[in-house]
Amino acid sequence: MASIINSFAISGIEGYLVEIETDTIYGQPSISIIGLGDRAIKEASERIQAAIIHEGYEFPKMKIVINLAPGDIKKKGFHFDLGMAVGLLMQSNQFVPSIEINSFGFIGELSLNGKLRPCTGVLPMVIAAKKTGIKNIIIPLENAHEACLVNGVRIYGFEDLKSIIDFLEGNNETKAITENANLGQKPDYPVDFSDVKGQDILIEYIVVAAAGGHNLLMVGTPGCGKSMIAKRIPTILPKMSEEEALEVTKIYSVAGLLKSRGNLITQRPFRAPHHSASLNSLIGGGNNAMPGEVSLAHNGVLFLDEVAEFSKKTLDALRQPMEDKKVTVSRVNYTNVYPANFMFIAAMNPCPCGYYGTKKCK
Which helix (H) or strand (E) holds 146? Predict the structure, then answer.
C-alpha cells in the first residue's frame, strides 16, 4: 500500500492540497516522479537520494514511483522534496511514525547533505492547509516566522531531515513555534508630505484622490515635484486591514520578494516601473506566469513616471486590470489570476522638451 504525505502547491496566489503518493515495487532500481511536475520537481530525485544516504538511511534498491495528486494540474517548485523523502522512508519501513501523519503537512527543499532550505510561497500554502483542516505544518526553520502569520496552525521548524524523522518517531520533542503578526504596529514610512514645499493646489487634489481612491495624471515641467509627491501618496492612504495585509504579503511571498520573512507587509505598496518595462513585467507573465507590477501594487499605488514614454501596447494592457481589479495570465497548461486593485498615478511633461507654458518650447 502506498504511503500518502500531505504537501501543497500554488496556483496564482492561492495554495491547494497535493497528496504525495509513494510506492516501491519490484523491478530495476529507478525513481519516477509523475503528476505533471516541472523540471525542478523532476530533478528532486537526485536531491532526495543524496539527502537520504547522507543522513544515514538506505535508499531502496527497487523501482520507486512517486505521484503528485491531483495528476491533472501542472505543478512547479522545489518544496516537494521534504514530503517525497518522508514518504519514501516511511514506505520502505525505515521509520514508523508515532503520530498521525495525515494531520501534518510538509514543505521544504532538501540539500544534498540533508539540510532544509527555505522556500517561496509558504504563506498561501499554510493558509490552504488551514482551509483543508491540516493543523500541523513542518517547514524549514527560516520559513517558520512567515508561516506563523496564519493563526490556528501549529508550525514546526527544522533544519535537517534527520531531526524531522526523530520528531515523527517521537524521539525529539520539538515545540510548535507560535508568533502572531503585529498589525498594531504603525507603518514606518521613510518619506512624508512635510518635505514638500509649495504645490498647495496639487496637494489638495492628491488628498481628494487618495480619499476616494481615484486615479490621477500630473503634468508639469521637470523638477516641479511630480515624482516626489507621488512617492508620498501611500503615507496618507488608509491603514491596511488584516485581510489586505495578508493578501499583499501572499503576492510578495509567491513572487519571492519578501525581504523580512515573518512580518506582514503593513505599508501600502508603491511600485514605480521604468518606462522601458516590458509588457510581461508590468502585467505579469513569463515562463512561470509570475505576478507583474500591477499585482505587486495591489492595495497600494502604481506610479508611471514619464507615462508618454511607455509603449502604446503596454499602456493599452492596463485598461482591463484597472476595470476588473484583477489580471488573468493564461498559458497553455494553466491560468493564474492575480489581484490588481491599485491607485494609478501617472506623470508626464507637457511637451518633449518639458517646458511648454513656462518658456518658449524648443
Answer: helix 144-147
Spatial distance between the Cα atoms of 68 and 220, rounded to a whole number of angstroms: 56
Tell me the three state secondary structure of residue 275. Answer: coil
Other C-beta atoms within 10 Å of 112: how many?
13
Residues 20-72 have pLDDT tens digits of: 999 999 999 999 999 999 999 999 999 999 999 999 999 999 999 999 999 98
Domain residue spans of the chain: 3-169, 193-348
Task: List C-alpha distances in Å: 49 to 5, 64, 137, 164, 211.
Answer: 18, 11, 23, 17, 57
What is the reported pTM? 0.87
CATH number of the structural domain 3-169: 3.30.230.10
- Domain range 193-348, CATH architecture: 3-Layer(aba) Sandwich (3.40)
Q: How far apart are CA 276 and CA 286, in angstroms?
A: 16
Residues in CB range of 237: below 8 A, 6 or more apart: 210, 268, 300, 301, 343
d(C-alpha 73, C-alpha 86), whole Å:
23
Gap between the Cα atoms of 153 and 135, Å rounded: 5
